[in-house]
Design goal:
- The structure is a single chain.
- By secondary structure, this protein is of the alpha+beta class.
- It is built from seven helices and 18 strands.
- Strand 14 (about 215-225) and strand 15 (about 225) form a beta hairpin.
């Protein structure tokens, strides 16, 4: 027992500080916001100060801060209070924000909203704090996330034309080498992430695809933490199933960032994309977090 009749069980498995914080809140609420003893209050607050309650969840961005843009179907930051995606249902074109449940996309709310119909992503929200949301206002160009009321578990581009791209407000600049971390599966030729200039589209992870070679300089690629080749075939092989793909590159000039597929290449499935406008972030640290989470 610690002050004010609050009991702590050392055999419960929960930390003392966590138990005390919960019990203290319950006790004060029950007392109508009053305390019975200032001496006990002082002792308990001192204990809580010296034994802070650890957060129940620590996200990738908590461990590796400084991302310029971060999109995921999982929660990446324990301080982020926004939503994951904004979804349009095909039945009546109504849109709704879908958040997180247990630090993952709230598929229950998603499937309830899209019951019996398809769902498409209008906005993929940026969790970096930079408000670099990736959006597509044209309904016919939005990638799919629900099929006949069932969550796909990923965001899927569908055609081979320059459609269904989510455009981010973040731009790569030629002054800054960047690090891009992706969770993607191709079911064709394309991979995740891209830049554009005029009518040309550049896949971030595919510097050897057509004119993309001139769009990126000094490109290095890693699949599930291991160095891979720089050709389209190498990257296509590495992402034949869902995998972690890392790109370290420098744009040849300033480029907008798009999420999707490019120049007639086939479709891609996306779960996560995080970009740092630098190459100082721990590549192996971020990769390990992703690989462990997705069990690659």
């Amino acid at each position: 027992m610690i002050g004010l009749g609050i009991f702590v069980s050392w055999a419960s498995g929960a930390s003392e500080a966590s138990q005390l914080a919960s019990a203290f809140t319950t006790r004060v609420v029950a007392d109508g916001g009053t305390v019975e003893s200032k001496a006990c209050l002082t002792a308990e607050l001192t204990y809580l100060t010296n034994n802070p309650v650890a957060p129940d969840f620590t996200g990738l961005l908590n461990d590796y801060s400084g991302a310029s843009a971060a999109y995921s179907l999982r929660l990446l930051d324990n301080t982020y209070s926004g939503n994951a995606v904004r979804v349009r249902r095909a039945s009546d074109n109504t849109e709704q924000d879908i958040g997180f449940a247990n630090n993952q996309l709230d598929t229950t709310s998603l499937e309830t909203f899209c019951s019996g119909t398809d769902g498409f992503v209008a906005i993929w929200y940026d969790q970096s704090g930079n408000a670099a949301n990736a959006a597509q206002a044209t309904a016919s160009k939005q990638p799919q996330i629900v099929s006949s009321g069932t969550s796909l578990g990923y965001i899927q581009n569908l055609t081979t034309s320059l459609d269904q791209l989510l455009k981010s407000s973040f731009s790569y600049t030629n002054a800054n080498p960047f690090s891009a971390f992706m969770v993607v599966q191709n079911f064709g030729d394309a991979v995740f992430g891209g830049t554009s200039s005029g009518s040309d589209y550049y896949a971030v992870g595919t510097g050897a695809i057509g004119s993309a070679q001139s769009g990126m300089n000094s490109v290095s690629y890693y699949g599930n933490g291991s160095s891979i080749g720089a050709t389209r075939g190498d990257i296509r092989t590495a992402t034949s199933s869902f995998a972690e793909l890392t790109t370290l590159a420098t744009p040849a000039s300033t480029r907008e960032m798009w999420l999707g597929y490019f120049n007639g290449f086939n479709s891609v499935r996306m779960q996560e994309y995080i970009v740092y406008d630098n190459q100082t972030v721990s590549r192996t640290g971020v990769e390990t977090n992703i690989i462990d989470h997705y069990n690659f």
